[in-house]
Amino acid sequence: MNAWEPAPDCVKCARLAAFRRDNQTHYPDFHNAPVPSFGPLDAEMLIVGLAPGLKGANRTGRPFTGDWAGDLLYPTLLKFGLARGTYGQSIGDGLEMTRARITNAVRCVPPQNKVTGAEVATCLPFLVAEIKAMAHLRVIVSLGQVSHTAVLKALELKQSAFPFAHGARHVLGNGLVLADSYHCSRYNTNTGRLSEEMFEAVFKTLL
User: Is 29 within the bounds of a domain?
Assistant: First the structure.
């Protein structure tokens, strides 16, 4: 197993492991395991989300696939040449990431889509290893405050020096750029907190 991916039967977070077992009973056809990252390790960009959605990535086994967040994220990546193919809401749609890779701060689906600080900390070594393995990494895009905080902790940087704000770009001491966006969730788009134009603006001039 790669250092940046948890084992399929990972039990490091007891609450999340129990929730997965419960979901296996209710949704036996779902992936119901830690969701692996999607995209090449030699990509220039790493996109970091929060955690798999119950009927999105936890169902399909691919980040942001099968729910509203993916309906905004993947067309945006295709538009800016970071992926190729067609997004079809399923792992077999033939979509290919080219210049970006996608992962989550927490790799297992959480109850009520809410993770705990302890769960983020437990998953952090996987993010650390993933960043180190990406030799050509230039930009990290954080989708939401939890992701932003996890990335800074993974890089051992002070939170106070790089405050989260939608559209913010932080030049980090290690040569990376950290770009922030509100999470592309249905809640944020339905409430008007995040529009398609606002989301696309985050990616427009990154690479």
Answer: no
Per DSSP, 54 falls in state: T
Please spell the DSSP secondary structure of 144-195, one letter per residue. Answer: SHHHHHHHHHHTT--GGGS---TT-EEE-TTS-EEEEE----HHHHHTTSS-
Q: Say if 6 falls within a structural domain.
A: no
Instruction: Tell me the C-alpha to C-alpha distance, in Å, between residue 6 and each of 10, 130, 143, 193.
Output: 6, 11, 21, 33
Average pLDDT for residues 96-123, to the nearest whole number?
Answer: 97
| Number of domains present in the structure of the chain | 1
- Separation of CA 88 from chain center: 18
- Per-residue pLDDT of 27-52, as tens digits, reads 999 999 999 999 999 999 999 999 99
Say if CB 155 and CB 174 are below 8 A apart. yes
Please name every residue paired with 48 in a beta bridge, in sequence order, or none if there are none.
Answer: 103, 142
Tally: H helices and E strands in the chain: 7, 7
Dist CA 22 CA 25 (whole Å): 5
Paired sense of beta strands 83-84 and 169-171, if any: unpaired
